[in-house]
Write a structure and sequence with these properties.
This protein is α/β, with parallel strands linked by helices and 220 residues long. The protein is 45% helix and 16% strand. The protein has helices at 20-31, 44-56, 73-85, 108-136, 148-151, 157-177, 198-205, and strands at residues 11-14, 35-40, 61-65, 90-93, 139-144, 181-186, 191-192, 214-215.
């Protein structure tokens, strides 16, 4: 009998799932029936809290720590997830940073901090996950870009370049991995999260064309 859960029986790895947007993505996938591998870097407490919340929904979940800026750690992460759940069907490349770096003040360190986390890590996650996703028969990769990768923002040059790279990487991987794995990107605009100070939403909303954010605030 059809349970009505679109993703029942599938396993999703969400990188950067412990906090912010990644957390909401993981919870939504669980609500659709997926079992969730919760990746985190340093947010161990938040990751295990999320695992408990997903398990209360009746789904399987487990937390996995890995430093995605260390390329050698990525295949180990993917293997641990596949061994734990017995399969991997969905990779959500959500882990990212959002670092300010003005043009004249951009250093090699600030450049690498943006590019290594936002672009290099998603590529090598996709590379390591591809054999498992292909074996699934329903493999999906979703990369998180953002509108900075399309429009460009002053004061955030390395970030915007990293996200522009994510967009082109997605287009290329979609061709490279077809037809066994579908690859798409999401480029969110302004997102208001419950943990964000209200003044952030007021400030950035004024810069958006519609003068509002896509809100995850519970009372809006």
């Amino acid at each position: 009998m059809d349970s009505g859960l679109k993703l029942e029986g599938r396993v999703a790895l969400v990188t950067g799932a412990a906090k912010r947007l990644g957390r909401y993505v993981a919870l939504h996938l669980a609500s659709e029936g997926a079992d969730i591998a919760v990746h985190y870097g340093k947010s161990e407490t938040e990751a295990h809290t999320l695992v408990e919340e997903i398990e209360r929904q009746g789904r399987r979940a487990a937390a996995f720590s890995a430093d995605l800026t260390n390329v050698d750690a990525i295949p180990c992460l993917i293997e641990r997830v596949a061994d734990h759940f017995g399969r991997l069907d969905i990779l959500i490349n959500s882990a990212a940073n959002f670092l300010q770096a003005k043009f004249g003040e951009t250093t090699q360190e600030s450049w690498d901090a943006s590019l290594n986390t936002n672009l290099r890590a998603p590529f090598f996650c996709a590379q390591a996950a591809a054999p498992y996703l292909a074996k699934s028969g329903k493999g999906i990769i979703i990369n998180f870009a953002d509108i900075g990768g399309l429009l460009g923002w002053t004061g955030f040059l390395p970030h915007c370049i990293s996200k522009s790279g994510v967009i082109l990487m997605t287009r290329t991987l979609a061709k490279e991995l077809a037809p066994n794995i579908r690859v798409n990107a999401i480029a969110p605009g302004l997102v208001s999260l419950p943990e964000d100070p209200p003044e952030w939403d007021r400030n950035y909303s004024q810069r958006a064309p519609l003068k509002r954010s896509w809100s995850l605030q519970p009372d809006r």
